[in-house]
Each structure stands twice: as structure tokens, then as C-alpha cells.
Amino acid sequence: MIIERAKPSDYQELKQLWLIVFDEEPTFLEHFFATRISYQDIFVARKDDKLVSALHALPPVLSQTGGGGTSNKLHRWGCDLQGVPKTGNHGKTPGSNQGSL
User: Fold this and answer.
1) Given CB 3.0 to 4.6 Å as the disulfide criterion, which of 5, 17, 43, 48 pairs with 55?
2) 3-class DSSP state for residue 70?
3) CB-CB neighbours of 10 under 10 Å
């Protein structure tokens, strides 16, 4: 097994792997991959030249207003998602996914 940083050529496999793990709305998935792909922040594991795991180590962002109160905007993974549909079930039961890449 090889662990290394992701490459632009991994784009489609990264999306496929994400969908195996997370039940996302297509709008959110496209927005996330269009705005937050930063290959220097993604580590992948390959086995027999196949991407089998990925870690998106994206820096968190906290948005605050004056006076210490939190902003009414939702910031997730550093991008403003107002108007983007809520995501699916990020807490899937382990082993509930069938198949592989």
C-alpha cells in the first residue's frame, strides 16, 4: 500500500469514494469538489494502483461577528454554503455501504 498526496488525476476516484462513504446531495457534492479541492490537503492510500482511502485534511474556518457572537452564516470547510441544500447522512452505520470502487 502506498500513501501519498492526491493528484488532479484522482478527481473522479475521489468523488466516487466520497459517495461510498457519504450520502450527499448532488448539488453539495459538486459545490464541495468545485470549491474545496486542494490536493496538498488530501492524502490517499493506493493498493495495486487503485485509490482505496482518502483523508481530506482541510483547514477549519470559524466566522465571528463583532462582540464575540457567531455569524448567522454557515461556514463549512471554509466555504459559505448559504442556499446550498443540507447534506445527507454523515453518520452512516459502519458496514452499511455495499461494493467498492
Assistant:
1) 43
2) strand
3) 19
Going from the C-alpha of 57 to that of each of 6, 73, 77, 91, the distances in angstroms are 11, 22, 10, 18
What cell was used for 26?
448532488
Separation of alpha carbons 11 and 98, rounded Å: 22
d(CA 79, CA 53): 24
Domain boundaries, the chain: 2-80
**Whole-model pTM above 0.90?**
no
pLDDT tens string 17-68: 998 888 888 898 889 888 888 889 999 999 999 999 999 988 776 666 655 5
